[in-house]
Amino acid sequence: MPQHKKTAETYRAESTRNTNATKSNLTQVTQPTPATLQTSVVPEDQHDATTTNDHAQQGNEQTSNEDRSTQRKLTWFTGVLAAVGILQLVVMFLTWMVYRRQAREMRRQRHEMKRQRHVMFRQWNAMREQAGLMDAQLKAMKDSGKQVGRQIEILEKSVAAAEKSADAAKENIELYISKERARLRVDIKPLVLPPKPDPAYTVDFAVSVCGPTAAFITENLCVAYVFPWAVVDNPELGEAIMLPIHTLPMAISANSPPLDCYAFLTLNSREEQFFISEVKARRFFAGIRGFIKYKDVFDREHETHFRYVWKYSEHVEDYGEWVKNGSPEETARHS
């Protein structure tokens, strides 16, 4: 900007000097000469001088026109420079306004950042205090946790001791119930086939109570049968024709004598010798099976199962003996 101003001033000084020189020349040319005021008839030398003066005057006028054109150009250029300077001033003013606004915004941001710094500092102090409180609480919790841990260990030991005591008490109760409850036992009597006036034979057995308490019968079934030897191990043999034991009472008192019971075996006297020979030849067999369900005085349910097969033996009187048959659950099970 200052350099443009210096250039414009230089152009203005030169234009002023040229203008002054041009005016001086014009003044000298335009002064009236004595020759021109005299008579129109002049000598030839004077005419030549006049022509020369005319040419000089025309040259001066041409120079003056050029100077004026140059002065106009310089004026226009100076105006352009002035306009550019004004625009630059406007731009600089706007730039200054922007810088001022930015400076104001930066000051506001600085104040806001200072305020945030103070807030963060207060928050940090608060967090530090909270950390101290939490550390103290943690120590207190650790101390209380140790106490709680010791109490838990004591409680666990107490619970374990109580569980052991409960298990021992339960075992004692079970031992007492097992010792005091009633048990039913079924004993099959030897099979005797004497001639009878009717064609029916019976398989006799005795039911006895073992134990110091009574047994209460809830259900019982029994059957005696004669089948071919090929089906002796059939687990379902005789189930379809099982009947209740009519001579068995609903309750059997403790230490009562054995109760005589029986099951009918359909076999007439004419088939007796045939039956014995078939049993001896292992082609037929006689069997009995049944069960007795009962409750003891402790209101617990129990079952006694029995299943026997009569086999021929030369070493046993009456030609045979009863042998347990079937699975362990079906052969005189006492529960």
Q: Order of helices and strands, N to C?
A: HHHEEEEEHEEEE
Largest sheet: 6 strands, antiparallel
Question: Overall 3D geometry?
Answer: rod-shaped
The whole-number mean of residue pLDDT values reads 78
Helix content: 40-55%
Determine the structural class based on helices, strands and strand pairing. alpha+beta
In angstroms, what separates the terminal alpha carbons?
Answer: 125 Å
Overall number of strands: 9
Oligomer: single chain
Summed up, the helix count is 4
Which parts are unreliable, with pLDDT below 50 for 5 consecutive residues or more? 25-43
Q: Indicate the radius of gyration in whole angstroms.
A: 74 Å
Strand percentage: 15-25%
Write the topology of this structure.
Blueprint (H helix, E strand, L loop, with lengths): L1 H29 L3 H4 L6 H137 L2 E6 L11 E11 L4 E14 L22 E2 L6 E8 L5 H9 L3 E12 L5 E12 L7 E5 L8 E2 L1
Antiparallel strand pairs: 1-2, 2-5, 3-4, 3-6, 6-7, 7-8, 7-9
Helix pairs in contact: 1-3
Q: What would your notes on this structure say?
A:
The chain has helices at 2-30, 34-37, 44-180, 272-280; strands spanning 183-188, 200-210, 215-228, 251-252, 259-266, 284-295, 301-312, 320-324, 333-334. The protein is an alpha+beta fold. The strands form two sheets. Strands 3, 4, 6, 7, 8 and 9 form a six-stranded antiparallel beta sheet that branches. α1 packs antiparallel against α3. The longest helix has 137 residues, at 44-180. The radius of gyration is 74 Å and the shape is rod-shaped. The model is unreliable at 25-43 (pLDDT under 50).
